[in-house]
Amino acid sequence: MLPSQPLLHAGVFALAVLQALASDTFIAAVYEHAVILPDPTDKPVSPDAALALMNKNMDVLEGAIKEAAQQGAHIIVTPEDGIYGWQFTRESIYPYLEDIPAPVVNWIPCTDPSRFGPAPVQERLSCMARNNSIYVVANIGDKKPCNSSDPGCPSDGRYQYNTDVVFDPEGKLVARYHKYNLFRGETQFNYPKEPEVVTFETPFGKFGIFTCFDILFHEPAVVLVSKMQVDTVLFPTAWMNVLPFLTAVEFHSAWAMGMGVNLLSANTHNISFAMTGSGLFTPEGPAAYHYDTGTEEGCLLLAELSAYPCLSPTYP
């Protein structure tokens, strides 16, 4: 008799955990995604049209996730804005947003998709993680209602956040991070009231997460390393290689070396916006990186990294 689907997933997850525990290394992946962008508009599209666009991008990401898992990756990071792009006003991005609960709710969207209302994007990302027994890191938009009793509540009655989510190999939501340091053009999003320092434990080290422009600031970037003592930082980004910034590969590699942690950097790929440059960076230098200004192709990177880089005998 064949095992039931839940038992099969539990067995695969347990095996993955045991394999990770057997080694002080893990295989990490990042995917630089050439995002399929919506047509620019100041007016909201229908929810169905928004989901159709996001599904086109998730089709590509799912292919990368499957390939990474087949090559033994334990975790994959996808870019900031990787599911719907960035060409939005506050009003026009609304159909792309979902209500993302705090991870303490112990939720697997793949098996319980309607628990917190419609969440087709979270459901699909959760199933990608669950079906491939891999941690999946993605960037989506969160919406939270508010009312007049909140002095900071926007006039439209909601907060909108640039948000990273992490699903574990069972498909459970294990991390949610609201971007704190918004780039000057991100008027479609709100600043969180306080900076968030988000960490989670894995069988291969302690992980932290933040987004793009956050890397230039003390909170949360430095705090994650100096106070929370993470081993690896997850970094979805939409990094433009223009002054006054260094190029993505140079800066992100230098940051990982200076901080003494792994940095899994997944960049959006768009030549017209000078967006490229992803990598798996370690305190000893890049384990793998990609920089392409000549094509509009995505790229999957994988490398075996130390789970606890500060304990490595070659730690700088």
From TrEMBL:
One of its GO terms (biological process) is pantothenate metabolic process. Residues 31-307 form the CN hydrolase domain. The keyword Transit peptide does not apply. CDD domains: biotinidase_like. Gene3D superfamilies: Carbon-nitrogen hydrolase. One of its GO terms (molecular function) is pantetheine hydrolase activity. It comes from the Eukaryota. InterPro entries: Biotinidase-like_euk, Biotinidase/VNN, C-N_Hydrolase, C-N_Hydrolase_sf. Residues 1-22 form the signal peptide. SUPFAM superfamilies: Carbon-nitrogen hydrolase. Keywords: Glycoprotein, Hydrolase, Signal. Belongs to the carbon-nitrogen hydrolase superfamily. BTD/VNN family. This is Vascular non-inflammatory molecule 3. It comes from Manacus vitellinus.
